[in-house]
Amino acid sequence: MTSRPAPSPNNPAPTRRRGALLPTIIVVAVLVIALVIFSGIYTDFLWFNQLGYSEVFLREKLAKLLIFASAFAVMAASVYFSIRVAYRARPVYAPDNQHDDNLNRYQVQLEPVRRLVMLGIPVVFGLFAGTAAMAQWEKVLLFIYRVPFGQADPQFGLDISFYTNTLPFLGFVMGLLISVTVIAFIVGLMTHYLYGAIRLTERGIFTSRQAQIHLAVLAAVFLILLGVNFWLDRYATLQNNGGYRAGAMFTDVNAVIPTKAILAVAAIIVAILFIVAAFIGKWKLPLIGTGMLVITAIVAGGIYPWAIQQLQVVPSQQSLESQFIGRNIDMTRDAYGLSGMEVTPYNATTTATPGALRADADTTANIRLLDPNLVSSTFAQLEQFRPYYEFPKTLNVDRYTVDGKVQDTVIAVRELNPQGINPDQQSWYNQHLVYTHGYGVVAAKANTVTSDGKPDFIQSGVPSTGLLGTDTSYQPRIYFGQSTSEYSIVGAPEGTPNVELDRPQGTTASTDASGESLTTFTGNGGPSLGNWFNRIMYAMKFQSSDLLLTNGVNEKSQILYDRTPEERVAKVAPYLTIDGNPYPAIVDGKVKWIVDGYTTSSYYPYSQQQQLQEATTDSLTAASGAGALPAASVNYIRNSVKATVDAYDGSVDLYAWDTQDPILKAWEKIFPTSIKPFTDMSADVMSHVRYPEDLFKVQRELMGQYHVTDPGKFYNNTLAWSVPDDPTTKAVDKQPPYYQSLKMPGKDKTAFSLTTDFIPQQVKNTDSRNILYGFMAANGDAGNVKGVKSPNYGKLQLLELPDATQVPGPGQVQNTFQSDPSVSEQLNVLKLGQSDVINGNLLTLPMGGGVLYVQPVYVKSTGSTSYPTLQRVLVAFGNKIGYAATLNDALDQLFGGDSGAQAGDAGVQKDPGASGSSTEPGAPASTNPALAKALNDANQALKDGQSALAKGDFAAYGVAQKALQDAITAAIAAEGAAAAAATPSPTPTPAP
Question: From the CB of residue 815, how many other CB atoms can be counted at a distance below 10 Å?
Fold first, then answer.
């Protein structure tokens, strides 16, 4: 056995090897990190370049690089020269005490690495400054490419762009320079102390002449910057949100703004005193000036405004603040696109008279019955076909021209569901090369259902067929969708066997053994993986050795990732806030996602801030956890961009929709080739544009107060409104807005609109009346002509009901539906057999001279494969309600036997036992002994069945189930007999 020689001075090789190994490890680690960073940048460039947006990638990166370099240079150079000046000003002396001797030892120890430290400290601070500054790239570019608003603020008379573009940039620059000055002062002070230019002596603090000049100059620079900052603060008061309302109020205008100017001048004077003192060596005046500046800042900047507010404003706030409240109202309405709203007084009647809907026949025919928030599981059970497909939880409402008429539809795409793949088949190969896409559009008429309550599909099936097209007239494959999160590798040379699973199909030569059709992607949807370098880069990006080693990649392979519409638009337009509800449409022979993008700002003067996430959260977003905007505060918003994302190849088109938006104009100058004019938008796309949901939510949140334009009434807040809570849910969340086609009062044409209700302001821990005070609609019809936007698109109309209105609000109507004895009795029939009765969305429609409420009622049986079907419709007008199997019958009952118009389900024939009734709230329940007996028998049969199951007596359970079925049949017959004999009750005139 050979022994290892012991280390000795004559055998230093092991130590040398260890010493040489450490630098090697460090170099390798640095190279690996650099390679990972490079792979991220390189693959990002490939992604942008493939989409045709390399301009966005390059300009954004270049802007960030230049801003980083500028901030780095300013910080690093300032810190370096501060250290350098302090070092060169070091005095030469012999230590005369223990403290000086200790400092001398520190200097000796530091000397071997002094040059490295003098360079390293500035570099470290420069890196921090550059990284922080780089995040402000949007402010810098908006300043450089700013576009005037053509509108002046009411206080200083400056263009609005000064506040949205210039002032944020100046604030960023001042913050950077102040940070640089403070850090340079601190490192200079420490260097002077280390090398003895500043010493603690028995007589006090000794400071050399050079140190005094150095630090005095830095202090003067700081004070000059502080003075400039005080001056800019004068303008920032118009963006203040700390007062009664946003903007400069009475105290700001009469106390804060003047004192900020005084402080700015005082700071400059004190700065001059510091510079003079540095050269004459007399520090009494600058020190006194500094003290006076601090006292002035406390008194003039704090105590004086507080005294004005408490002693002058608070006792007479309404009169003194009136002018400034008016500014806030006007500027807020401008900033949120509310200033052009049409306000219509609507003296709604509460009397349901026969024929009342005759003038609203078009609206009546389009009343939506299919609730897109409930029927996702119905679509899934009827149209999903395979577990690896899925539909979103909430479907979308759009409209298509069918047989020459505009038809509201509930629409969805059959997307890929990776979680639906059999666990035994969830290999990397299957997940990324085989299961790559969804298939087909499914759409149903929104205003009717089949006789058994199922959706009346106009587009369905696999292969895709229907009134909207076939799989030969449009491309049905969905490679890019809202639930597509994994990357896929697609594409192959012509003649290569197909690998991708396409859709269910009978076994043919082009299918696999399971009867599934196979396909190969033929579009241009992602960066190429056709060379080894790209494969290595993407293997690093996705940390996947399988991607590098698989035999499924060839010279024509492409990699698809970042596949949701929101992700793609957000990446190619990083300056936009993206609407939370993209929706699909069949346009120009393709399925395209239509995405709304917003330009926003939080710097608009006198405009009230809105928290986007809070404003856009309602009962739907709260239930699903998705769809709301991010948690950011803004006080200006425009739907500036409409974008489309091709569901097959992922191509993105951005259209400048709001051509008057100065912020968008600035971004168009920054990225001149990335945004197309909306005149390039095809007629097909134009016909499916709709008013964006999140913008409407933000606007309606403000309208609760800002529908009042008189400053006095606004201050009193007696006319404030609230968005009602959703009455169909148990949770306390706002009712979502609803898309529906309707003709607003005073208008000649029906328009596809987004609508919402308003009720009196709801205050916590108080009981407020749930009556209707207002109804707002946004016109969402952009027309159907290429490149021509309808002048009515985006018009907001607000119906204001009288303050003494008797029109019930959504909460009151829902309560009436649930508490009415006759309706409850009949709904019990639907609950037999342990079925669930689900209330659909409660729609509000200004029709018949009043307000009509419509609510579909769904029934869902028990079982894992059950789904809701529409079985009844509830309607209300004033104090009267109706209930029937179809909307058409319910409206006729509600309006004295003849509504005057036909609903979309007028031709639907339902079970004769499905008839309903028309009642007044508080009316006694109809006496129907046969129905009551049948219900009692059914309840008893249910109990007997459960008892038999508990005992394991299946024979008794079968007898109980037969008795239950007989009871249900008897109940339906009894209900039908009672409905046939029922006559509508007269409608009372409500008390004033």
Answer: 15
Place of tokens 């102390």: 193
Using DSSP's 3-state secondary structure scheme, residue 759 falls into: strand
Listing DSSP states for 948-976 in one string gives: HHHHT-HHHHHHHHHHHHHHHHHHHHHHH
Q: What share of the chain is helix, strand, coil (3-state, %, to 5)?
A: 45, 20, 35
Residue 369 vs residues 239, 374, 424, 775, 852: alpha-carbon distances, Å:
45, 11, 41, 20, 14
With a CB cutoff of 8 Å and minimum separation 6, the contacts of 34 are none
Bridge partner list, 439: 477
In sequence order, what DSSP letters do the residues of 138-205 get, joined into one string?
A: HHHHHHHT----S-B-TTT--BHHIIIIIHHHHHHHHHHHHHHHHHHHHHHHHHHHHTTSEEEETTEE
Q: Using one digit for the tens of pLDDT, what is the confidence trace for 490-541?
A: 999 998 999 999 988 754 445 555 668 899 999 999 999 999 999 999 999 9
Angle in degrees, CA 344, 887, 914, rounded to 5: 155
CA separation (Å) from 146 to 164, 167, 510?
A: 9, 11, 58
Give pLDDT tens digits for 217-265.
Answer: 999 999 999 999 999 999 999 999 888 899 999 999 999 999 999 999 9
Neighbours of 620 (CB within 10 A): 24
Can you tell me the distance from the alpha carbon of 70 to that of 170, in angstroms, rounded to the nearest whole number?
15
- Is residue 650 a contact partner of residue 479, using CB atoms and an 8 Å limit? yes
pLDDT at 791: 94
Q: Give the CA radius of gyration of the chain.
A: 36
Q: Phi first, then psi: give them for residue 814, nearest 5 degrees.
A: -60, -40
Strand order in the sheet with 465-466: 396-402, 405-413, 441-449, 455-460, 465-466
- The residues with which 585 forms a beta bridge, in sequence order, are 592
Helices and strands, counts by H and E, the chain: 30, 35
CA 796 vs CA 509, 611, 816, 842: distances in Å: 57, 22, 31, 21
Give the count of beta carbons closer than 10 Å to the beta carbon of residue 267: 24
Question: In terms of residues, how long is the chain?
Answer: 992
Residue 479 to residue 500: CA distance in whole angstroms: 11
Band of residue 15 on the pLDDT scale cut at 50, 70, 90: low
Residue of 633, 639, 637 lying closest to 597 (CA atoms): 639
CB 53 within 8 A of CB 674: yes
Is pTM, for the whole model, over 0.85? Answer: yes
C-alpha triplet 432, 627, 675: angle, nearest 5°: 75
Angle ∠(676,574,46) on CA atoms, nearest 5: 85
Q: Quick: pLDDT tens for 322-338.
A: 999 999 999 999 999 99
pLDDT of residue 302: 87
Instruction: Tell me the sheet residues that pair with 329.
Output: none
Determine phi and psi for 774, rounding to 5 degrees.
-155, 160
Phi, psi of 761 (to 5 degrees): -55, 130
Six-digit token string for 200: 């603690």
The type of residue at 925 is: A
pLDDT at 213 over 70: yes
